[in-house]
Fold:
Amino acid sequence: MLANLHVKNFAIIDEIDIDFGSHLNILTGETGAGKSIIIGSITIALGGRVSQEMIGKNGDYAMVEAVFHLDDEETLGKIRALDIEPEDGDLVISRRITESRSINKINGESVPVSTIKKVADYLIDIHGQHEHQSLLNPDRHLEIVDEFGGDKVQEMKREIEGLYHEYRRCKKEYEEDTFSTEERARQVDYLTFEQEEIQAAKLQKEEMETIDDKFQMASNAGNIVETLSYVHELCQDQAGASVGRALQRLQEISDLNSELTGFQDELIQIESLLGDFNRGISSYMGDFSFNENELNELSKRMDLIHSLQAKYGETYEEIMDHYKEVEEKLLQFEDYERFKAEKKEELDRLSLALDEACADLTELRKKTAWDLEESIAQALADLNFAHVDFAIEVREKDQAGEDGKDIAEFMIATNPGEPRRSLSKVASGGELSRIMLAIKSVFADHDQIETLIFDEIDAGISGRTAQKVSEKMAILAKRHQILCITHLPQIASMADDHYVIEKEVEADKSTTRIRPLSSEEAEEEIARILGGVEITDAVRESAHEMKEMAAQVKK
Structure:
């Protein structure tokens, strides 16, 4: 849920910091107080575009920060899949906007705005005339039907996904291995050459891993022998003789003091180590030999191995894997007609299995769509859409995909005699928000997006319709966090948390502020909405009654 919003120097907001409740948050205020700026701030925090003119007058940058607290494990998994790790379930999205650019961060780490938008898709849904709305995207409609269908639909989709990838693999192999007689002959010649080239090389894994070092050693053999001879001379003739003389002199005085005996013992160890070192070098030089012919042969062998690596793979395993592929292809070409017939038989079998599975899924989706259609139509009727005609069309595509062979689209006509149109083409912002409210109420237990924002939901409604909308929103708020801007007392009275947005005017400066209301202040705000210019005791009594009625509805 959206736990906190912090906005600084944005439009006519100097600075606000507000904590939101986990259920129904109602935002009210006078016309022009800046309610749209609050929603705009949230939109911008979630990656929306912002013009430089929105930077306020109290600095050269604007800052918007939204803090979300996440409990749902599925949502957390989707966020982590974007390489973002919430800290104790908290996600802090901040954007610092200057005249030239914006600095975007999630939990203090800089990210591109595209990443913020991807994260936002899992966090919040904004329903208003100009905001992003996941339920208006026809590509999302099939996913919604599948979510409503539950585990059985998901199981069938997983089966189809596996069949589809098997079919695509087989189809690719069948099409790539279609050759004429002349092409097959050329392929056989080419593959035979590769096979014989690898066979003739008689590669050994250890040889491939050590040949570069051996060549390096052999090509520098002269320098190695010369250096070792010099080291041997220094350590045996000079150092060895010096240590021997030093030890002889030390032995002459070692009986005079116990500490001198310790020095003698250490020098004896040095003499022993030096002797071992000299014998080791002497032995190495005795075994070390090279000649020009060996170096030439090693050079040729290394060039051959490098050539094979450039063609078939860097490692011994990669070259041998390529060799096996060559062998398999040659076997295919030996009995090409049988191979093609078997591959075609496999392709036909997978195609038939995929079509049958898609047909079963289509049937299940249509049944699911009918059930969902009835539930949404009833929810719309509950919201006083008296003559609504809602339907979910499930149509088959020409080709199957990994999610089946279907397209789903929500269709609606809100007035008698009108033809159904795609939900995405419904124009009225307020009407559209109420349709979204109806759909969301049906999906309260299916939708993983926890936070919903409704803007303009009360446009063009009043009386009984407004009451119906408020009741439906209160029900939805039991399972979702809702932020709703409203001008209607029926909706405002349902608030679990009520905030007022105010504009303060001082001299030539206007500033928008937002603050939470106590129970008494909330009733006074509802009275203001009811009474207009003059707030009488009767109006206050009406406001009190509306709050009491709302409390009964929410029980």
Summary: The chain has 17 helices and 15 strands. Residues 384 and 443 are 19 Å apart (CA to CA).
